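Supplementary notes for students who missed Thursday's class. We covered one full example, reproduced here. Read the sequence, then the structure, then the short commentary at the end.
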Amino acid sequence: MDRPTPPPPSAGWRPDTTQPLVYLMAQALLSVLDPAGFPDPRDGTRRSWTLTPLPQVMDALVDHEAAWWRATRHVPGTGVADLTDLLARRVVALVCLLCPANRDDTVAILRRIPELAGSSAERRAAITDWVRRLYGSSRAVSVGTGHKR
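Structure (token representation):
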């Protein structure tokens, strides 16, 4: 698929070194995922992701991931069709932050989430397997391998 080549920066352009690198990376990713830009709530026009404030950029990235979570948790046999959006967000955040060393550790840390504190090991294992299928070793954090790539 051919995409238009963006124009080069103007002669006076300088990178914004006051922004965290993750913010700039998130803006770049959203520019690829949604080149139309961010819908401005004031008038509905689309704005460049590079002009969008950090909270909206991060919300847009999480919303993009949440759509993927919704689609995958309804796959027959996953055992996680009843996972809510909020619980899915908590699960993914916890696993990415703690980067458990293996599947058993992942199952165990899920007890830290209030909705899963009293759940069975089988329930937490189904959720663990779902997260591992989503993010496995192809993402920055290798779920269940205990290391960051």
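Commentary. The radius of gyration is 19 Å. Confidence is low (pLDDT under 50) at residues 137-149. If anything here is unclear, bring it to office hours.
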